[in-house]
Design goal:
Helices cover 36% and strands 21% of the residues. The protein has a seven-stranded mixed β-sheet. Strands 11-10-12-15-16-9-17 form a seven-stranded mixed β-sheet, sandwiched between helices. The protein contains 15 helices and 17 strands. It is of the alpha+beta class and 502 residues long. Helix 7 (213-222) packs across helix 8, helix 9 packs across helix 10 (283-301) and helix 10 packs across helix 11 (343-357). The protein has helices at residues 16-24, 46-59, 89-92, 104-115, 152-159, 187-211, 213-222, 224-242, 269-277, 283-301, 343-357, 366-373, 378-385, 448-463, 492-495; strands spanning 12-13, 33-40, 65-68, 80-83, 93-97, 126-132, 139-146, 163-164, 260-268, 308-316, 329-337, 390-395, 403-404, 407-415, 423-430, 433-441, 473-477.
Amino acid sequence: MTDAMGPGPVQTPVRQADVFAWRMERDPLLRSTITAITVLDRAPERALLLDRLERATRLAPMFRERLVPAPLPLPLATPTWALDADLDLSWHVRWVALPAPASLDAAFDLARIEGMTAFDPARPLWELTVVEGLPGGRAVMIIKVHHSLTDGIGGIQLAEHVVDLEREPADRGPLPPLPTAGPRATDAERVREALAHDLAVVARTVAGGLRRLPTGVRRAVTDPVGTALGAARTVASIARFVAPVTRTLSPVMTERRLVWRYAALDVPFDDLHAAAHAVSGTLNDAFVAAVTGGLRRYHERHEARIEQIRMTMPVSVRTEDDPAGGNRITLLRFPVPVDDPDPLTRMIAIDRLTAGLRHEPAIGYSEVIAGVLNLLPPAITGSMLKHVDVLASNVPGFPLPVYVAGARVEGFYACGPTIGSSANITLMSYAGTCCVGVTTDAGAVPDADVFLDCLREGFDEVLALTPGARRATVRARSWAANPERSSSPKSTEAVRPSAGQA
């Protein structure tokens, strides 16, 4: 049998890390959909935006490809990407106007609904919605993309094909040629290609080990202790990567529901960066310290004391040889301290912790580890993901203001997928502001307003280390347009058991 679109030209096997993400999506709670919300000072010019998107998809052909399921239902069978001959930008790019009284909160609520909606698997895995009718003539651009197409850094690389540095768009010349596909494959050819690819992966792994054997033997003879210790460190590192997780560290954020809330915070970039310099740390150290400070406050609001939370943090494995776009991250999962009320000492601890994690030997084996995990029943690995407390990501964006089809970008917020965790908090730097997108699971965080207040206070606690620093501000809340979807602090007891009852 063929897939729903019939046999097609198979191009590129899907990376094992992305296969893992797709297999997990049998459970909707584990979807890997990124929803990026761009706030514009006016609506973009329609024809120009479509032209820039057409150009971008030609320069990054993965956005013209659809996922082709493996022809055989085998554990090792790898799906592939194939060019979609029926790509229609008018389907992927939509224009809507919010009913009055429109607000940025309402636009975030629309983005939340789109983010919770599954992709059409017969089409390339991205959609863009321009939302007009906001106060002051503003508009919002909602970009929905599957994580297998790009990560945060790849997204910025792709955006360079769309944005301008001035309101008057630059002339970029004629469009690049359309990507071309090879001849259409028959079912039998697809089966042979799939089996050949999977056998080749195994063969390359074995051959690679054999090629390294002489060097390994020489090292074992000349430095037996060092060789043994190096191997032990690698094994221990991989063991930490795949160690089973059977419970959340948080006694409060334990439930999961297929309902998400979106929110946005604005944090002054220079002030947060200066706070990190107080301990010779990085912006990421200050970011994580703010998140953990907010989580400590949230648990205190619920009369629960917690020493650590389990955090997942993406780490880029992108190289100079990788094309623009694509998902080139691996996910580090580790416990992080939250109970220290001093943001300075918390930043120091976080800096030491993350510095060590960046040099984990297992990072170089992430694709192999994903392949092994793909052999396990999805229920086992999916259960582990649902016991992560929070996912935090820091993505460097554009340092200067940019324009999209004549509209000035005022803010860019990435509301990332929870992937089974309680919340995803993503910082995207843009033109002097840390645009923080917040996604919360309504089961783990039924009182999203309380959580957001605590997170804002966590940022203010770190910002206070910089004399004269400005405070963090709430830019938008998806539930503000529909107040009945969120509980107020006074109603917390009705939706959340106390720590003693949890």
